[in-house]
Amino acid sequence: MKQPVKWQRSFRYAYEGVKYALATQRNMKFHFFAALVILALALFFGLPKTDILFILLAVTLMIVTELINTAVEKTVDLAMPDLHPLAKIAKDVAAASVLVTAAFAVVTGMIVFFDPIERLIQTGRAGVHPITAGTVWILLCLVILTVIAVQTRFSSKGNGVKPSLLTAVAFAVATLIACRVQDTLVALLGFLLATVLLLALHDKRKRPFGSLLLGALLGGFITVLAYYLYPM
Fold first, then answer.
1. How many helices (H) and strands (E) does the chain have?
2. Which of 97, 168, 198, 228 is the one with CA 20 to 30 A from 12?
3. Which of 55, 63, 66, 227 is catalytic?
4. What is the pLDDT of residues 29-61, one digit of tens each?
5. Does residue 74 have a known ligand-binding role?
6. In sequence order, which residues have a C-beta less than 8 Å from that of residue 161 and are 6 or more positions away?
7. Which of 40, 34, 66 is nearest to 52 (CA)?
8. Is 66 tagged catalytic?
């Protein structure tokens, strides 16, 4: 049987490494999902070539540093199965590289998408209507009751993905702020805080990412629907 040439073996080994990281590393799954969303938004907004290059650079650096971090962690575990201060330092430094790259990706995304999102928000504010404190509480109650109803329906049908109530409320508030404020930067900061809450709540067993994401989408969708269909 003919053996694959050297470059084919190298490509196969590299592909196996990507598959392993994607299958076993929670952060890698999130990075791939975020990359798909960001690239889809880039196509949706029709970004210029220079902005797309910056987006691709940020996405590539994010995935590469996560792959290196995974390699460092496994190498340290192999060389030092027991707890050791130097092993901890090696893992912490590798994780720090991922954090720095993530910060670069976030800043790049905010700079690149700021103008397109501002135009989109300004268009959505056309015909804006006043809102009272009472309608805000009614909207939040609507989000909470809807999420509870969906959770109850899922719980009666087995172990489906149940939307998170906390992320639903957080993204409902962020969406409402984006609909009301005139400053787009404030709107983006609201969504950034909601996203930070989502990541902080993430727990593989108690709060899986799918549950948090479903709650966020549900809260944002209900808010937009209620805001533009009901004259608050």
1. 8, 0
2. 97
3. 66
4. 888 888 888 888 888 888 888 998 999 999 999
5. no
6. 154, 208, 210, 211, 214
7. 40
8. yes
